[in-house]
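[step 3/7] fold_predict: job queued, chain A
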Amino acid sequence: MGSERGDGAHRERWKEVDRMKVILLHGNGGSSAKEIWFPYIKRELETLSIEVIARDFPDAYIAREKFWLPFLKNELHADDQSILIGHSSGAVAAMRFAEKNKIFGSVLVGACYTDLGDAVERESGYFNRPWDWESIKKNQNWIIQFASIDDPYIPVEEARVVHKQLDTQYYESTDRGHFGGDINMTEFPELLEALKKKLNI
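[step 4/7] structure written:
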């Protein structure tokens, strides 16, 4: 009897994973979903029968909100069965998207919450108003976050504020920099394991 319940739970869990969709959000500055550790995450998740969307977003240099959020919603069809994995500006986009849209969960890598005094970041439009932290939390089941003390672009204090406001499952490294771009980082096993634990797989 107990075994049957376990098998049923197992089947139910896999049914849920079958409906799941992971969307990769790269950073600005002309970045791509085919760079750094994105291909690794895509390959590993696809071996678990999880659909992964790795599309390059429009306006890849500035990554303006007015182009990215409609693309995420209307073109990639992000919904309440979608997990958003965002790096840098992609993490910021994932947070803004969750203010007004339900998603399953998100992974924020190298996230910030201010424009850091940078003109390109300011032009993106993400930082021209206060953050609705409560809605971001309420519109998803969980948030995983990765930050590094030696990130050359984003002070770790930015990540710590995001963690505090969103009550994220937080991982802080000392030597990962900006998790790609500044360092050669083609694999990200910690992210993969944290995600697998959330999905019970």
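[step 5/7] annotate
The longest strand covers residues 142-148.
The helical segments are 2-19, 38-46, 65-75, 89-100, 119-123, 133-138, 156-166, 189-198.
exit 0
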